[in-house]
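Narrative of accomplishments. A recurring question from our advisory board has been how the design workflow behaves on a single, concrete structure rather than in aggregate. To address it, we present the structure tokens for one chain from the evaluation set, followed by the sequence designed for it. No filtering or post-editing was applied between the two.
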């Protein structure tokens, strides 16, 4: 029996039903929200209630699964998604790990890992966090990511973007989790990421 992880735990893939493959419940800057949004333009109760109403409407159209690739860099906050999904139990929500950024790796990792002052020669700690999200769960929520996400927007690929992509490839090889990539068709960045993943798989 093949299963897939959702916000409310693993389900049989035969129960996925009609699936929306790339949707976001929220895209926010978590840091900006915490410092400048609450009490100004962000009302948590209003936003949660609105999301519940919208997702109930989606479910009423016959959709049974909602794949949400909101990784770090897009404001992923799983406790909020858990709260919303509890009110829309007829909808499966599948969440991601990885990082969405066009230039740099996440700031906390710029001094940790390959090529940094705190390089211990082991696997990239960023990759290990992705693996943990997939195998143990995200933060202390118990919710496991089901897939990986990264972004390659520009033809001139920044070193931070390459590092994230390699971390995603590592986590895929460790866990078998599928990958989704934001690419730019005009700049044909999909060619670069396919080459990188192919090379990673063969080494």
């Amino acid at each position: 029996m093949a299963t897939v992880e959702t916000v409310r735990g693993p389900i049989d893939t035969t129960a996925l039903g009609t699936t929306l493959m790339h949707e976001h419940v929220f895209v926010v800057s978590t840091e900006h929200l915490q410092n400048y949004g609450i009490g100004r333009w962000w009302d948590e109760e209003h936003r949660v209630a609105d999301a519940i109403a919208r997702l109930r409407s989606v479910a009423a159209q016959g959709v049974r699964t909602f794949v949400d690739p909101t990784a770090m860099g897009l404001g992923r906050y799983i406790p909020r998604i858990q709260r919303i999904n509890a009110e829309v139990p007829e909808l499966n929500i599948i969440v991601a790990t990885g990082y969405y950024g066009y230039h740099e790796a996440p700031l906390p990792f710029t001094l940790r890992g390959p090529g940094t002052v705190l390089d211990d020669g082991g696997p990239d700690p960023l990759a290990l966090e992705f693996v943990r999200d997939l195998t143990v769960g995200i933060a202390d929520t118990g919710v496991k990511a089901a897939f990986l996400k990264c972004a390659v927007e520009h033809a001139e690929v920044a070193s931070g973007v390459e590092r994230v992509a390699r971390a995603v490839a590592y986590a895929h090889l460790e866990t078998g989790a599928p990958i989704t990539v934001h690419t730019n068709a005009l700049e044909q960045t999909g060619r670069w990421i396919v080459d990188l993943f192919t090379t990673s798989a063969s080494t």
